[in-house]
Amino acid sequence: MNPQLALVLGLLGGCIAMFIANRPRMDVVALLAMIALPLAGIITVPEAMAGFSDPNVILIAALFIVGESLVRTGVANHIGDLLLKHSAGSETKLLILLMLAVAGLGSLMSSTGVVAIFIPVVLLVASRRKLAPGRLMMPLAYAGLISGMLTLVGTAPNLVVDSALRHAGHAGFGFFSFTPFGAVILAIGIGYLLIARRWLDRPDEGRGIENPRRQMMDFVQDYRLAEREYRMRIGKGSPLIDQTLESAGKSRRSEGNVVAIERKHGNRVDLMEPRAGLQLLEGDVLLIDIATPPDEARSKELDELKLEPLHLRGRYFTDRSREIGMAEVLIPPDSKLVGRTIVEATFRTRLRLNVIGLRRGREAVDGVVAEEKLRAGDTLLVIGRWKHIMNLQKHPHDFVVLTLPTEMDEVAPAASKAPWALACLAVMVLLMVTGWVPNVIAALLTCLLLGATRCINLDSAYRAVQWPSLILIVGMIPFSTALQKTGGVDLAVNGLLQIFGDAEPRLLLAALFALTSIIGMFVSNTATAVLMAPIALSAAQVLGVSPHPFAMTVALASSAAFMTPVSSPVNTLVMVPGKYRFGDFVKIGVPFTLLVMILTVLLVPWLLPL
User: Fold this and answer.
1) What are the entry keywords (predicted)?
2) What is the mean pLDDT of the segment spanning 76-88?
3) How far is CA 47 from the centre of its chain?
4) pLDDT beyond 90 at 423
5) Phi/psi at 483 (nearest 5 deg)?
6) Domain residue ranges in the chain
7) Matching CATH topology for 216-320 and 324-410?
8) Is omega for the bond preceding 605 within 30 degrees of 0, making it cis?
9) What CATH number belongs to 216-320?
């Protein structure tokens, strides 16, 4: 071992030690490595900075933006809804469906891209289920890695190994040659993670964690809104049909407050804003707040107006929290609203919001509050479309926005652009699957299309990029160059042939898998496949056996980057949102890598005879 290689291995060991200790931050460690390698004269400055121009780094940044566009347009919400709906309240079913969906999509496009797209989906699902994100983020990453084992185009190492076979004069792999191996590994991986996920629980990130921000249900309780909500359908022959909402107000009790209107258009139901000039139609469903207790007179009035009570889907309309929200506002002493009633303040006309609650001090005012004169220090609860709630910030002299609920985080500000976002995503997948343009060009083109169709704006795009993850990837790339320049990779490969060259083929397959996995911890999986494919073919030739089992072993091992967060960009992406430490990947990934190695050694010679 030459002195330079010893220095590189020493630096690498130091980085791993700091990763394990989690001091300093992993991205800072990566920057320190970028500085140390050129200062030690091992690589040049351009080689140390090459990660910033690496196409895969640009690709990952672009895919963060694609993922954010799916959040802003509500697509991520709908995917999360489907996962929640079909998991039927079971975390086990949720994990299985998540891994199957990610692996299936990742088998046709970049696994890194799929994971980047699904990260916001998983965060939303974890938030709704009140789960620690770490219980789902590692299954997400592992499903992305396993997706590369399902098809020929699932990951670049598969194509590298296939190309090496063809150049050596052998038949290449078919599109589904990898599927039997990947399907078994995926099934075993799902079972393994159903057991291993408990090892990711921490006392401060478990199920019982309290969210410091308030939810809409907290408002319902604080302002005593329960049992004030009604869903009423306008029946056939109702005198309200064809009237405007303003004129219909004369035909109903004054304490009723229409919060929103559900109107059916074909197979979809739109939620409409209760504007004064809106014409009511037969079949419209009115979401009404009635502050006074029910009595016989009201029942008689409902019968006369032919309003049919319907089942409530959520307490105080919280089932529609993506369209309508709530907020608390405080009346300051110098507000021009002091001394006016809520009706005189014309909240609905000016701000397009309804006031449904009033608190003085800690006590909520019962009954109808429309005629209450406002005082300095009063707190109002308003309800309406989220875009109008956000506009409250533009009136700082009239009131101060006190509280915005957690449901606001799930609001899609560009929900109407969802079809465009899906179309752009389809274009990206098509370009990546067909290979008409490089993946990075496909992703950048998609970002431009998303911007042009207003699915995302520049500010949101820049905020979407997880810079610590990118810096970590960029900082570890120079180690690949350093190991190759100092002969570290060649030393490992030559040692493999010397020790196992005359051994039983299955033992050589196991050694080949282990060495490929170890090299893959520090070198990109594509570079690992480039280095190991010729060695595998040479070993098969020396033994006089078929090269296909050896080539398949290298391909599968190149994707088995489960052991550390820097083994693959897929793992690096989930580090921050999953709140993982370096040791989390070691304790989960090492046993699973050994399990995958055993499966590979058993399955490969069976399905691809030596």
Assistant:
1) Membrane, Repeat, Transmembrane, Transmembrane helix, Transport
2) 76
3) 33
4) yes
5) -65, -35
6) 7-206+467-607, 216-320, 324-410
7) yes
8) no
9) 3.30.70.1450
For the chain, percent of residues with pLDDT exceeding 70: 90
What's at 598, amino acid-wise? I
- 307-339 pLDDT, tens digit each: 888 888 777 888 788 788 899 988 888 888 888
Q: Rounded to whole angstroms, how far apart are CA atoms 334 and 329?
A: 14
Tokens of residue 188, six digits: 């075993």
The answer to pTM > 0.85 is no
Question: Residue 526: its pLDDT value, please?
Answer: 67
Scored b (16 or more CB within 10 A) or e, 420-440 reads bbeebbeebbebbeeeeeebb
Question: Residue 152 in contact with residue 159, Cβ under 8 Å?
Answer: yes
DSSP secondary-structure letter at 168? T
Which among 98, 78, 117 is positioned nearest to 424, based on CA atoms?
A: 117
Q: How far is CA 199 from CA 129, 232, 239, 589, in A?
A: 19, 49, 63, 12
Kindly write down the DSSP assignment for every residue of 286-297, as one continuous string: EEEEE-SPP-HH
Is 143 or 581 the better-scoring residue by pLDDT? Answer: 143
Instruction: Judge whether 20 and 582 are in contact, CB under 8 Å.
Output: yes
What pLDDT was estimated at residue 451?
94
Q: What are phi and psi of 381, to 5 degrees?
A: -105, 120
Contact between 376 and 333 (Cβ < 8 Å): yes
Query: Would you tell me how many other CB atoms lie within 10 Å of the CB of residue 160?
Result: 22
Report the range of poorest mean pLDDT among 80-94, 218-232, 245-259, 559-573.
245-259
Domain 324-410 in this protein, CATH class: alpha beta
DSSP 585: H
| Strand partners for 354 | 383
Q: Pairing state of beta strands 256-265 and 285-290? A: antiparallel
- How far is Cα 610 from Cα 602, in angstroms, rounded to an integer? 12
Q: Write the CA distances from 426 to 80, 423, 430, 433, integer angstroms.
A: 19, 5, 6, 10
Tokens 């699904």 locate to 118
Contact predicate 496/535, CB 8 Å = yes
Phi-psi region of 342 (alpha: psi -120 to 50; beta: other; left: phi over 0): alpha
Q: What is the SS3 assignment for 562-608?
A: CCCCCCCHHHHHHHHHHCCCHHHHHHHHHHHHHHHHHHHHHHHHHHC
Contact 235, 284 (CB under 8 A): no
Number of H helices, E strands in the chain: 24, 10
Give the tokens for residue 276. Answer: 């004064």
Alpha-carbon distances of 313 from 70, 193, 287, 320, 573, rounded to whole Å: 26, 35, 11, 9, 37
The string of DSSP letters for 177-191 reads TTHHHHHHHHHHHHH
CB 600 within 8 A of CB 553: yes
The residue with greater pLDDT, 199 or 192, is 192
Residue 186, pLDDT > 90, answer: yes
CA-to-CA distance for 209 and 368, rounded, in angstroms?
37
| Residues ≥6 apart with Cβ < 8 Å to 598 | none
Rounded to the nearest integer, the mean pLDDT of the chain is 82
Here the tokens at position 520 are 């893959």
Give the confidence band of 250 by pLDDT, cuts at 50, 70, 90: low
Residue whose structure tokens are 């196991």: 510
Q: pLDDT confidence of 480, banded at 50, 70, 90?
A: low
